[in-house]
Amino acid sequence: MIDCTNTICTTPIIELASCTNDLVASYSQAELQTQVGLGCEVINASMCTQEAVRQQCTCPEATQGTCPDGQFCSVMLQGASGTSYACGDENGGIPSDAAVCDNSTPCADPDNEICVATSAGATSGICLLSCTQ
């Protein structure tokens, strides 16, 4: 991760001990293995969703991909099948008008939208339009 961010940041933004502690506390062993295997493009895109990182680094520009006008293929989703993306704002934020979904209220377009929980253990989520970068 540190080697990846060093390619877009002129000063180090990740302190190794703190980063290691955060990763171990946040992920299971299997999830840690997945994180270690992510490429720099994915890691940097994820880091660049944070305002502090965008202020200190030269982040790659978000692409519109297959998203509608005014949205970008910038919301990185991590799941069992790997990394995928959904439409959001330029900085990887979730659209403010995203519909709420749960087991009894699925997304309106299940072929193209996915219901994403925004916190661990949540019983509902938000509908995000899947996209390809």
Structure description:
It is a single chain. The two termini are 22 Å apart. This protein folds into two domains: 2-56, no CATH class; 72-131, no CATH class. The chain is α+β, with helices and mostly antiparallel strands and 133 residues long. Helix content is 29%, strand content 23%. The protein is built from five helices and five strands; from the N terminus they run αααααβββββ.
Short description:
The chain has 133 residues and is an alpha+beta fold. It contains five helices and five strands. The chain folds into two domains: 2-56, no CATH class; 72-131, no CATH class.
Helix content percent band: 25-40%
Order of helices and strands: HHHHHEEEEE
Work out the count of structural domains. 2
- Global morphology: globular
Largest sheet: 5 strands, antiparallel
- Count of alpha/pi helices: 5
Question: Which structural class do you get from the secondary structure elements?
Answer: alpha+beta
In whole angstroms, the N-to-C terminal distance is: 22 Å
Q: Count all strands and give the number.
A: 5
In percent, how much strand structure appears in the residues?
15-25%
Q: Which regions are unreliable across 5 or more consecutive residues at pLDDT < 50? A: none
Taking all Cα atoms into account, the compactness measure Rg is 16 Å
Arithmetic mean pLDDT:
80
